[in-house]
Amino acid sequence: MLILNIFILDEIQGTLGEGTFGRCLKCYDRKREKVIALKVIKNVDKYREAAKLEIKVLDKIAQKDPNDESLCIKLQSWFEYHGHICLAFERLGKSVFDFMKENNYQKYPMHQVMHISHQLISAVKFLHGIRLAHTDLKPENMLFVDSGYDVYWNENLHQELRILRNSEIKLIDFGSATFDWEHHSTIVSTRHYRAPEVVLELGWSFPCDIWSIGCIMFELYAGNTLFQTHDNREHLAMMESTFGKIPEDMVEKTKKMKYFRKGKLDWDETSPDGLYVRDNCKPLIEYALLKGETDQRFIDLLEKLLEYDPGKRYTAREALRHPYFNELRQRSRKSADARGSH
């Protein structure tokens, strides 16, 4: 039994996840009579320091969000135990990524793509409003409040598929979050969600989160990552295959001139890697061909989120006003009217 002045944890029920930082445990808090998620940090100086920075960020979020409306996970408390910093959070469901993985990487239904995306953008709007960039947005860092599901047989695929019952999410993992007045690391974001200005080392700010959101939304919609690569040059080639040439002014300013020749990306389209990019990346608009109006609006929003120039890229506030979310706004108004009539 672990007895502390804040928590009485008399049962560790399992591991929720592991990472380079340590592990996340499922524990029963007897004092509060509920299950919690306990993030246990390795007793290593650099991880301890990172944990202390995350605690500072989470404290600021709690201070600016007293009514718990930001859709960001709340730190319940923290303590040290034999050199390990332990952070206690509410127990949530599976991550958006894990649910998709366990569902054979099937895409989410459009109404859930819309709801999840709206929540993610709303959370990021809140963060940017307090001058904080998350810098590591990805499906793994979005947890469903409850990942319960129903199972049905898909005749076309000849397999069972899971349909999520509740698509409410919370944003997690603020270990890399950076306030705009703090030092900015040269490289941020997990590769698949990394903005072009980061790849080209042009400096970054809040728009890098917006690019990540666009990549995440595509993944929810398609069931696969937009840019499946681990190489900078190939990543840039994939961007060009999807969005056209990288703007000249970005090429001129980059410190990574080794990727360019005479102002153009130095990329052999006839090489095996070049053929892979050609076969796996296509203009964004082609993903919505012969689909409905909602899909067209979705692609239009993606184009604005995945704008090369961070100065022209949509803000979170602008994204929430996009016509793609009209249906969600209408449902919200009808629900409010129904509550008001009772």
Describe the model:
This protein is an alpha+beta fold. The chain contains eleven helices and 14 strands. It has helices spanning 45-64, 96-102, 110-129, 196-199, 207-222, 232-243, 248-253, 272-280, 293-305, 316-320, 326-340, and strands spanning 2-3, 8-19, 22-29, 34-41, 75-81, 84-90, 132-133, 142-144, 149-154, 159-164, 169-171, 178-179, 260-261, 264-265. It has a six-stranded antiparallel beta sheet, with helices on one face. It has a two-stranded antiparallel sheet with strand order 7-12. Strands 8-11 form a two-stranded antiparallel sheet. Helix 5 (207-222) packs antiparallel against helix 9 and helix 6 packs parallel to helix 8. It starts with a strand and ends with a helix. The model is unreliable at 1-6 (pLDDT under 50).
Topology, please?
Blueprint: E1 2-3, E2 8-19, E3 22-29, E4 34-41, H1 45-64, E5 75-81, E6 84-90, H2 96-102, H3 110-129, E7 132-133, E8 142-144, E9 149-154, E10 159-164, E11 169-171, E12 178-179, H4 196-199, H5 207-222, H6 232-243, H7 248-253, E13 260-261, E14 264-265, H8 272-280, H9 293-305, H10 316-320, H11 326-340
Antiparallel strand pairs: 1-2, 2-3, 3-4, 4-6, 5-6, 7-12, 8-11, 9-10, 13-14
Helix pairs in contact: 3-5, 5-9, 6-8
Count of discrete alpha- or pi-helical segments spanning 4 or more residues: 11
Q: Give the DSSP E fraction (strand runs of 2 or more residues).
A: 15-25%
> What's the assembly state of these chains?
single chain
> Could you give a short account of the major beta sheet?
6 strands, antiparallel
Structural class: alpha+beta
| Biggest sheet strand line-up | 1-2-3-4-6-5
How far from one another are the termini?
49 Å
Number of strands: 14
The residue fraction in helices comes out at 25-40%
Q: Segments where pLDDT lies below 50 for 5+ residues?
A: 1-6
Helix/strand order: EEEEHEEHHEEEEEEHHHHEEHHHH
Integer-rounded radius of gyration: 21 Å
Q: What general form does the structure show?
A: globular
Mean pLDDT: 91
